[in-house]
């Protein structure tokens, strides 16, 4: 059987040791495509992706487009113009638009254009890539073009802080424009992939496929009731919404927990710790119980030692991988409604609330009776490992290749 020729376009690259959940999803997707298709991956040639390209797990044929060096006068002028547009337009007026240097690099690269024209399937990851569907359709009218919405950006923009009339006008305008772009994107795709039916509804409920991220290896052991009162927060802290969530938890939730459990520990695990968060933790009094662990090599050991996992996010959109990962590891989860969005199951959480007092009370209840909290989590773990396992993920993705 002929292997399908697939072009995977993402502005980020997965690799072994990638510090964020979206990158781990890409790594699993890249592995599947590399194993079963003739894969070419296109991404933006920024510093981060050049570093990623040297690490294990990246596709053999990876083209980095944009920001090229060694060009003539015209090429350097194009790079400069792309950078200006990126700064003055994309970041200010239309944060969801494609990366301009990538578009310039794609149009400039005969190798990349040839891969697109010869592809049977063009797989677009994240909204920034899906916005390219019109251009890609012109380059290859016959390819099957699929788009995976990791989140719905119009919802994410609408949840940005709007504490002043100016901020409200700005973010409402960005969200409205984003909804228009989403409608146009969906209409041009052959296959719409989302992580939950909730996201499909936000996109206008088009024909779609729900793909569950492969967040379970299937071999996570049962989680024993924890010996120590450790509350774990796992997230890529460089993301603005995760940084804000961490600060909010420290200021508004954790003091309420410590009033009743002065021995409890709040442990932040994840790369990209901001200076703001680091300074906030450093300013806490001795014995606050807050620990910035940063990136760790063995995340499984962190889950094994935790009595509860806290997901305190109040912004953003889409399924929160950090919530699913904790469920797959059998850890009792206390989360906000944003942290639980799109994860469809019954009685999954040890606590579900947006009020700091309610979240703190749920955490204290888990710490007071870890055995009882663990009984629910054991049932949930079996469901989560099956729903978010590799076998189901691979079966779903293979179905999108039909041409």
TrEMBL record:
Keyword set, alphabetical order: Glycosyltransferase, Transferase
Tell me yes or no: is Transferase among this UniProt entry's keywords. Answer: yes
Is Glycosyltransferase a UniProt keyword of this protein? yes
Name of this protein:
Glycosyltransferase family 4 protein
Task: Specify the species.
Answer: Nocardioides hwasunensis
Its taxonomic placement starts with: Bacteria, Bacillati, Actinomycetota, Actinomycetes, Propionibacteriales
């Amino acid at each position: 059987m002929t292997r399908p020729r697939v072009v995977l376009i993402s502005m980020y690259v997965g690799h072994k040791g990638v510090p964020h959940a979206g990158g781990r999803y890409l790594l699993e997707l890249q592995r599947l495509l590399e194993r079963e298709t003739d894969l070419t991956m296109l991404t933006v040639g920024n510093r981060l992706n050049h570093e990623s390209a040297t690490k294990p797990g990246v596709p053999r044929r990876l083209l980095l487009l944009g920001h090229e060096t060694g060009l003539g006068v015209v090429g350097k002028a194009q790079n400069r113009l792309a950078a200006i547009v990126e700064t003055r337009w994309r970041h200010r007026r239309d944060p969801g638009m494609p990366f301009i240097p990538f578009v310039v690099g794609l149009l400039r690269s005969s190798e990349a254009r040839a891969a697109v024209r010869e592809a049977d399937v063009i797989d677009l990851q994240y909204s920034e890539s899906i916005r390219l569907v019109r251009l890609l359709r012109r380059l290859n009218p016959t390819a099957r073009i699929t788009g995976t919405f990791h989140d719905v950006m119009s919802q994410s923009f609408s949840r940005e802080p709007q504490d002043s009339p100016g901020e409200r006008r700005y973010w409402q305008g960005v969200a409205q424009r984003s909804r228009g772009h989403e409608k146009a994107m969906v209409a041009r795709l052959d296959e719409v992939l989302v992580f939950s039916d909730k996201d499909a509804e936000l996109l206008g409920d088009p024909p779609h496929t729900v793909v569950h991220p492969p967040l379970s290896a299937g071999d996570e052991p049962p989680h024993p009731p924890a010996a120590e009162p450790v509350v774990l927060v796992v997230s890529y802290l460089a993301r603005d919404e995760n940084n804000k969530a961490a600060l909010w938890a420290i200021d508004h939730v954790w003091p309420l927990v410590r009033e009743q459990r002065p021995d409890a520990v709040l442990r932040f695990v994840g790369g990209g710790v901001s200076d703001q968060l680091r300074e906030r933790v450093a300013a806490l009094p001795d014995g606050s119980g807050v620990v910035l662990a940063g990136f760790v090599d063995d995340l499984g050991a962190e889950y094994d030692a935790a009595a509860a996992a806290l997901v305190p996010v109040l912004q953003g959109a889409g399924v929160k991988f950090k919530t699913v990962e904790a469920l797959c590891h059998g850890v009792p989860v206390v989360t906000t409604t944003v942290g639980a969005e799109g994860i469809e199951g019954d009685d999954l959480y040890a606590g579900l609330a947006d009020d700091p007092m309610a979240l703190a009370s749920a955490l204290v209840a888990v710490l007071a009776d870890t055995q009882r909290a663990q009984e629910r989590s054991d049932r949930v773990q079996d469901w989560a490992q099956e729903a978010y396992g590799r076998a189901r993920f691979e079966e779903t993705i293979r179905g999108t290749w039909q041409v």
